[in-house]
Design goal:
about 650 residues, mainly alpha, Arc Repressor Mutant, subunit A, 3-stranded antiparallel beta sheet, 20 strands
């Protein structure tokens, strides 16, 4: 949706003509110079073309201009005649700002509040507990409803198709859009590109736009119009009624564009247009998912691979157990692990509540091994090895939670193996270096899968910095991690600190700054890393206006683990979830009691289903009981909530 000065005046002219005309068959006639503006309104389903250069309002156009007229009368916004030529009263970025606010209990947040206020979409509310605060008004919400219900037109001419092909898919800086007259306005009118909040600094092709761009690679540019609603309906008609039901003209069109063969079988271009139709008509866009891997986790992928392919080949007794992984990490020379300082530093900082932050930094500069670092802080009772072991185990849990490794029984021990997705990540890390991939950078790419969304500037810059975006498009690595965000099978996992952060967040009404404010400033880095994990796991969404929204999965995990004792380092592990799954399979559900009861004789069957060694199985059973997810012989309500979260995570 795009409304600038020229569009607003055009809508008001149509409304005025509609009210004044005596003969309903007489439509508003425009001059040829104004045609591009009215064509953009037509593509937005706000105006309708009746005859050449003759237009009228659609139902949605009438609803929108009525809102504009009322807002002008109330003084919420000046009359369009006084607007700056480039002022975007509405645009994809404005709709996104409104949508984000609506999702967050009408709160716009500092990033977008001013922009919405300039457009007349903010009101002051007063509540006894909150006092006065700013929220989006009913006009904004009514416009958002118009946007959701007004399906745009879709028509790609041969010339526009060439422009689309020559335009990087994004995310990219808006200033890098190719020159092309009013083509960007046409694309935005059809919801094929979107711009970032609050100032349209970044553009990206939308989910529909990417599908159109992909389809054009397979369509023969043999006609003036390459994609239209009529063409799409002809393809659907083949599926619903058969090729013989098409008229000769329809068949000729599909043949000339190279969409079907002589019998009506679909060529790749036709198949691609079916996806375009689905997105355009049904507006079924995938949820925004993301991905995260930290430096130590990437190192562990490399270590597991090394042990299997090098050490195990020489000595079958050496397999990647946690102990062996720690052993080989300790043998790595300083130059190979120095980049892990932030990871180890954060874990030690967390244990000491950041009281020794400067000492840790100084000590790391002095020591020559990880062992020395941990010995310095945990030397009493030789606790250093246990602490290092816990750090490595936590990272292994994270890798398994993201489907990059799996753990299984091998000669009575728990060992780790890379999955196919884990191998893909390792290959990337070997080619481009061991590094962190943040959820924010990956989300800068996956956010564009929505109906209209482009990453805000900070997200885009993060993606560029991590080399996931370059030359105006996702890089090879960017495509890999954005694909993995959707392909990996997630298992619920959360650490003690991450659970603390999760418990600070209500379902809605909070922003990043509100969460940071609940922790001492020294914890900001740790909270940021927690956000990365929680969002990548699907527990929360951080919107473009920096609102933090708990997902249904996040609310389930938060409630299920509300009673976990504070001292439990790993309140929920992926291995524990695997055991929960197995117990449910061998148990009987009692719906009214919200409980699954397991006969003692079936515990052995559950062990077999997990593929774990007995020692690990028994240890995780204890953790499940301590966390309050199972009783002695049953899965309780909290455990069932975790299993529900698992189902939703991979829906």
């Amino acid at each position: 949706m795009l409304i600038r000065k020229e569009h607003a005046i055009a809508l008001l002219d149509l409304l005025k003509h509609e009210r004044e005309r005596e003969n309903a068959s007489i439509h508003y006639t425009i001059t040829p110079e104004r045609e591009p503006v009215f064509q953009e309104l037509e593509f937005q389903n706000l105006a309708e073309l009746y005859n050449p250069l003759q237009y009228g309002l659609t139902y949605w156009g009438r609803a929108l201009v009525t809102i504009l007229e009322e807002m002008v009368e109330k003084g919420l916004i000046p009359h369009p005649e006084s607007w700056d030529e480039n002022f975007r009263w509405l645009g994809t970025e404005v709709i996104t700002m409104i949508a984000d606010a609506v999702e967050n209990k009408d709160l716009p947040g500092e990033l977008t509040e001013k922009a919405l206020e300039e457009r007349g979409f903010i009101e002051v509310r007063k509540e006894e507990k909150k006092g006065e605060y700013k929220a989006v008004n009913q006009y904004a919400k009514d416009i958002y409803e118009i946007f959701k219900n007004a399906t745009p037109r879709l028509e790609i001419s041969k010339e526009l198709a060439e422009y689309i092909k020559n335009t990087p898919v994004g995310p990219n800086e808006s200033g890098h859009l190719p020159e092309g007259g009013r083509y960007p306005e046409l694309l935005e009118s059809m919801r094929l590109i979107a711009f970032s909040v609050p100032n349209s600094d970044i553009y990206a092709f939308t989910g529909l736009g990417k599908a159109v761009k992909e389809a054009l690679n397979y369509i023969a540019p043999s006609l003036p119009v390459l994609i239209s609603e009529d063409i799409l309906y002809s393809l659907i008609k083949i599926i619903d009624e058969g090729f013989d039901k098409l008229t000769d003209t329809e068949k000729e069109t599909l043949w000339e564009l190279g969409l079907v063969d002589e019998e009506g079988n679909f060529y790749p271009g036709g198949e691609k247009l079916l996806e375009v139709y689905r997105l355009w008509k049904d507006k079924e866009f995938p949820p925004v998912k993301t991905f995260n891997i930290e430096i130590l986790e990437a190192e562990l992928l490399k270590m597991i691979d090394y042990i299997w392919n090098e050490e195990y080949a020489k000595n079958p007794e050496i397999v990647p157990t946690v102990d062996q992984i720690v052993h080989f990490l300790l043998e790595k020379p300083l130059k190979e692990y120095k980049h892990l300082i932030e990871y180890y530093g954060r874990k030690i900082n967390q244990d000491f509540n950041y009281k020794k932050k400067e000492e840790i930094r100084k000590k790391f500069a002095e020591v020559k091994s990880i062992e020395e670092l941990f010995k310095h802080f945990y030397e009493k009772g030789n606790e250093w090895y246990e602490k290092l072991y816990d750090v490595v185990q936590e990272a292994l849990y994270t890798l398994e939670a993201f489907g990059l490794i799996t753990s299984e029984e091998h000669k009575g021990e728990k060992v780790h193996k890379l999955t196919e997705h884990g191998k893909e990540v390792l290959d990337d890390m070997k080619q481009r270096g061991i590094r962190e991939i943040t959820s924010t950078a990956v989300k800068a790419i996956t956010i564009t899968n929505k109906e209209i969304s482009a990453p805000n500037v900070d997200w885009y810059n993060q993606a560029v910095e991590e080399k996931l975006v370059g030359a105006g498009e996702p890089t090879v690595a960017g495509k890999l991690y954005s694909r993995l965000a959707y392909e990996i099978k997630r298992l619920p996992h959360i650490t003690r600190f991450e659970l603390q952060v999760l418990h600070k967040i209500p379902a809605k009404g909070f922003f990043l700054k509100d969460v940071y404010a609940q922790f001492d400033e020294t914890w900001k880095e740790e909270v940021t890393y927690a956000f990365n994990k929680l969002e990548a796991r699907g527990y929360l969404n951080i919107l473009q206006n920096e609102a933090v929204i708990l997902t249904e999965v996040g609310q389930l995990i938060k409630e299920a683990l509300a009673g976990v004792p504070e001292g439990v380092a790993q309140p929920l592990t992926p291995i524990a979830v695997r055991i929960l799954e197995a117990l449910r399979k061998v148990g009987n559900l009692y719906v009214k009691e919200e409980r699954v009861r397991i006969l003692p004789k079936n515990i052995e069957e559950a062990l077999r289903l997990t593929g774990l060694d007995k020692k690990t199985f028994d240890k995780e059973l204890v953790v499940l009981r301590v966390a309050g997810l199972i009783g002695k012989t049953s899965i309780n309500k909290a455990g069932l909530m975790v299993l529900k979260a698992l189902e939703l995570m991979n829906k």
